[in-house]
Design brief:
The structure is a single chain. By secondary structure, the chain is an alpha+beta fold. The chain is 27% helix and 23% strand. The chain has helices spanning 78-81, 84-94, 132-144, 223-241, 267-284, 310-334, 348-352, and strands at residues 16-21, 30-35, 41-47, 53-55, 68-69, 71-75, 99-100, 108-109, 114-116, 163-164, 167-168, 171-177, 183-189, 256-264, 296-306, 338-340, 343-345. A hairpin with a 5-residue loop joins strand 12 (171-177) and strand 13 (183-189).
């Protein structure tokens, strides 16, 4: 099995990803949109965190009417940021995309599931939140991108203000093509109460599962490098507790993900894919799915490859989890550190370099 050229969710044909960042001087938040191909994608969701902020997720229940959707919104701003989905809905209606509800082709209702993460105050401005205009900007960015364009990673879109255990989080993406020809891709926004970092070694947890930048066992930092990084991270926690974001008690977060595939799956099968994809999050973040998190993963599926037997379906499930783990590691490695009025959040590469 070989990784695709871009190693990102957009290696699944037809899917595009766009980001938009809040322009405020003291804002540290944004929105990411995963845009499905024309005709939409079968969709499902699995929510494991105890404090989710979501929109339209009930529509994805296999028992309910809607079979396909055209976009998923991942956003900062907690519950306030869910307003960004309204801008995506408006854009899709203008394109004539959505659930047909009348004789006129323009009579559609776009169903746009969304999930928000907590980043309020991270830039210093508590009232800086994504809105409908930011959602429109993100979906327009996705629509403008060329097919197969790599996902921009790091401190972008919904990952602009993401933090994981005091370390700067962000957006990461990964993909793989199975021997059957099926492609499975994932996008993760890493923003967790738990840590992505093994405190004993300085290795990212996900790297223990082969999700590091190189094949094989992870590279371990020298003991003096790790000790220095540990001290700097402790100091960052102390500094942040004295700034604006430190007023939020207890810590509130939420990691988000999307797994996409060109395997032909039913809504029930897609829901299973969304559920097993959480295994990838659990490998890379410890602890995970806490009451202070709202961890949510969506699954999106097109119709290119028939899933002829259980063995292939199991491969798709396993690949979804693996790609989420890899996406988490890539997100943390690509993130840029922040030192502002909302807090001091060092990046992994600031502490450990290019390990």
């Amino acid at each position: 099995m070989d990784l695709e050229r871009t190693d990102s969710l957009t290696d699944v044909p037809g899917f595009r990803v766009g980001h938009a960042r809040h322009p405020g001087e003291l804002a540290l938040t944004g929105t990411t949109v995963v845009l499905a191909p024309e005709g939409g994608a079968v969709a499902a969701v699995d929510v494991r965190g105890g404090g989710p902020g979501t929109r339209e997720t009930d529509a994805l229940d296999p028992r309910n009417l809607v079979q396909r959707i055209d976009a998923v919104v991942l956003t900062g701003g907690s519950a306030y940021g869910l307003d960004s989905a309204s801008g995506v809905v408006a854009w899709l209606e203008e394109q004539g995309r959505g659930v047909p509800v009348g004789q006129d082709p323009s009579q559609v209702v776009p169903v746009v599931p969304a999930a928000g993460l907590f980043d309020l105050g991270r830039g210093g401005d508590w009232w800086a939140r994504p809105d409908a205009g930011l959602g429109r900007a993100a979906v327009e960015a996705a629509a403008r991108s060329a097919p197969g364009s790599p996902v921009v990673e790091g401190s972008v879109g919904a990952g602009t203000g993401a933090v994981a255990g005091g370390l700067k989080g962000g957006v990461g993406s990964a993909s793989i093509r199975l021997a059957s020809g099926v492609t499975v891709g994932a996008l993760a926004v890493v923003n967790a109460v738990g840590s992505v970092l093994d405190p004993h070694t300085g290795v990212l947890y996900g790297s223990y599962f082969g999700a590091g930048p190189k094949a094989g066992p992870p590279a371990f930092p020298e003991s003096d490098v790790h000790e220095g990084a540990r001290r700097r991270l402790e100091e960052a926690h102390r500094v942040t507790s004295q700034r604006v974001a430190g007023s939020v008690r207890p810590p509130l977060n939420t990691s988000l993900g999307v797994v996409a595939t060109d395997a032909r799956l039913s809504k029930s099968q897609a829901q299973k894919l969304a559920g097993t994809a959480h295994d990838g999050l659990a490998r890379a973040v410890r602890p995970v799915h806490l009451l202070n998190d709202g961890d949510t993963v969506f699954a999106l599926c097109t119709d290119t490859y028939e899933v002829a037997d259980l063995a292939l379906f199991n491969e798709v499930l396993a690949a979804g989890a693996d790609m989420v783990t890899r996406a988490v590691v890539k997100a943390v490695r690509a993130a840029e550190g922040v030192d502002g009025p909302g807090g001091l959040f060092p990046a992994y590469r600031d502490l450990y370099g290019a390990l």
